[in-house]
């Protein structure tokens, strides 16, 4: 089993907060993590997709009273939106008893539901943690390798969902991802409420895959789908809220420059991206027009999986060609510029240096496909993805 780095953060958060919400797409490993934590302390686990377990929390106050001395783990909690209102009273009563921590661990597959249902009622009483798919640091530790192009290529091709990544063959991995996509379209999304034809949403998802890493052009997507721009925005909101798509915002400030104001859009898991585009082997990928966008999205997701929650990600782009692929802004006003290159012999354009001067970056990196770390001049360091993730994790 792949050891997930975030487990210590979850355990620490449970020890400091009455309630913790662990969010992530289906099959990313939330339940496995939660059951591992349950083994370490008195706990009760309910899967709210099972009608029998859902019936047990019809009256959450009675359920909690019976299990007050345990960590109550509720999986797929978006299935029971009515429990959030009484939880505030339960937590406050426990505080008066002197019990301030470790009462509830919620697992959810859709951030929109979890946030809307709990943000107001449980403000100041709940901590949110997102579980990303398996990343480079976790996978190389599992493979017992410090750094390896071949290992990273396996992760890049198959993505970070454990059952896809650890499948016995490329064929089984591809089949798993195809079934994953079908299950979301035909079962999970309709159960969450939106009435969108599965085939329409599949076309939209596939269109986003073909535009991986591109600036969002909502009117073009709307025209291709024969729907309104408002409808496209609703579809995109849904995919972002399901943690399947990333909407990377543009950085903007009073620089006096004309800037690109629309977000960039990425399919978050590279394996799902490749399944949508019917890419099955690394050779297929290397010969596909999307290879650059795929690598860029893969690098961004891995870096952000290691980035502390108080650091905010952006991109920077002007119509004149000044561009930074990933801009990380720290609370102390530090700004790191990260350029992403698939080449093993990276070179930089004038546009990168112009953008760094516009933004006044404090550090500059080029994440490339090689292993060596070296200076490229102008306060810019070429670095592998593995080392970049360690760099940001220790910042």
Descriptive account of the structure:
The chain has helices at residues 7-14, 30-38, 51-56, 60-66, 84-96, 111-118, 136-142, 149-158, 162-165, 170-192, 198-210, 218-225, 229-241, 270-276, 282-286, 291-305, 350-359, 385-393; strands at residues 19-23, 43-47, 71-75, 104-108, 126-130, 214-215, 245-248, 264-267, 312-317, 323-329, 335-340, 363-368, 374-377, 380-384. It has 395 residues and is an alpha/beta fold. It has two domains: 7-130, 3-Layer(aba) Sandwich (Rossmann fold), CATH 3.40.50.300; 136-393, no CATH class. The strands form three sheets. Strands 9-10-11-12-14-13 form a six-stranded mixed beta sheet. A five-stranded parallel beta sheet has the order 2-3-4-1-5, sandwiched between helices. Strands 6-8-7 form a three-stranded antiparallel beta sheet. α8 crosses α14 (270-276), α10 packs across α14 (270-276) and α16 (291-305) packs parallel to α18 (385-393). The longest helix is centred in the middle third of the chain and has 23 residues, at 170-192. The mean pLDDT is 91.
Which helices and strands, and how do they pair?
Layout: H1 7-14, E1 19-23, H2 30-38, E2 43-47, H3 51-56, H4 60-66, E3 71-75, H5 84-96, E4 104-108, H6 111-118, E5 126-130, H7 136-142, H8 149-158, H9 162-165, H10 170-192, H11 198-210, E6 214-215, H12 218-225, H13 229-241, E7 245-248, E8 264-267, H14 270-276, H15 282-286, H16 291-305, E9 312-317, E10 323-329, E11 335-340, H17 350-359, E12 363-368, E13 374-377, E14 380-384, H18 385-393
Parallel strand pairs: 1-4, 1-5, 2-3, 3-4, 11-12, 12-14
Antiparallel strand pairs: 6-8, 7-8, 9-10, 10-11, 13-14
């Amino acid at each position: 089993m792949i050891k997930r780095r975030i487990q210590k953060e979850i355990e620490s958060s449970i020890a400091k907060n009455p309630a913790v919400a662990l969010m992530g797409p289906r099959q990313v490993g939330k339940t496995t993590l939660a059951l591992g934590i349950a083994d370490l302390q008195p706990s009760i686990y309910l899967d709210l997709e099972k009608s029998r377990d859902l019936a047990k929390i019809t009256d959450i106050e009675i359920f909690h009273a019976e299990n007050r001395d345990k960590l109550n783990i509720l999986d797929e909690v978006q299935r029971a939106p009515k429990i959030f209102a009484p939880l505030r009273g339960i937590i406050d009563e426990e505080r008066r008893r002197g019990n301030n921590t470790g009462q509830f661990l919620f697992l959810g597959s859709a951030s929109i539901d979890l946030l809307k249902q709990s943000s107001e009622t449980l403000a100041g009483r709940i901590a949110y943690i997102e579980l990303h798919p398996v990343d480079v640091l976790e996978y190389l530790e599992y493979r017992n390798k410090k750094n390896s192009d071949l290992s990273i290529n396996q992760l890049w091709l198959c993505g970070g969902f454990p059952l896809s990544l650890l499948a016995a063959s490329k064929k089984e991995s591809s089949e798993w991802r195809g079934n994953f996509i079908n299950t979301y379209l035909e079962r999970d999304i309709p159960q969450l409420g939106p009435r969108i034809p599965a085939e329409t949403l599949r076309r939209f998802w596939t269109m986003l895959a073909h535009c991986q890493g591109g600036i969002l052009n909502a009117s073009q997507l709307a025209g291709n789908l024969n729907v309104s721009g408002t409808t496209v925005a609703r579809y995109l909101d849904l995919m972002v809220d399901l943690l399947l798509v990333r909407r990377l915002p543009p950085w903007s400030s009073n620089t006096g420059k004309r800037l690109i104001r629309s977000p960039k859009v990425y399919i978050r898991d590279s394996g799902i991206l490749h399944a949508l585009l019917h890419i099955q082997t690394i050779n297929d990928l290397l010969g596909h027009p999307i290879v650059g966008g795929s690598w860029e999205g893969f690098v961004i997701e891995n870096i952000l999986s290691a980035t502390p929650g108080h650091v905010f990600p952006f991109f920077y782009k002007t119509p004149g060609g000044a561009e930074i692929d990933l801009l990380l802004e720290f609370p102390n006003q530090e700004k790191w510029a990260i350029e992403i290159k698939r080449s093993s012999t990276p070179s930089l354009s004038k546009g990168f240096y112009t953008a760094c001067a516009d933004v006044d970056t404090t550090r500059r990196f080029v994440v490339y496909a090689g292993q060596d770390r070296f200076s490229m001049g102008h306060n810019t360091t070429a670095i592998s993805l593995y080392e970049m993730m360690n760099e940001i994790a220790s910042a």
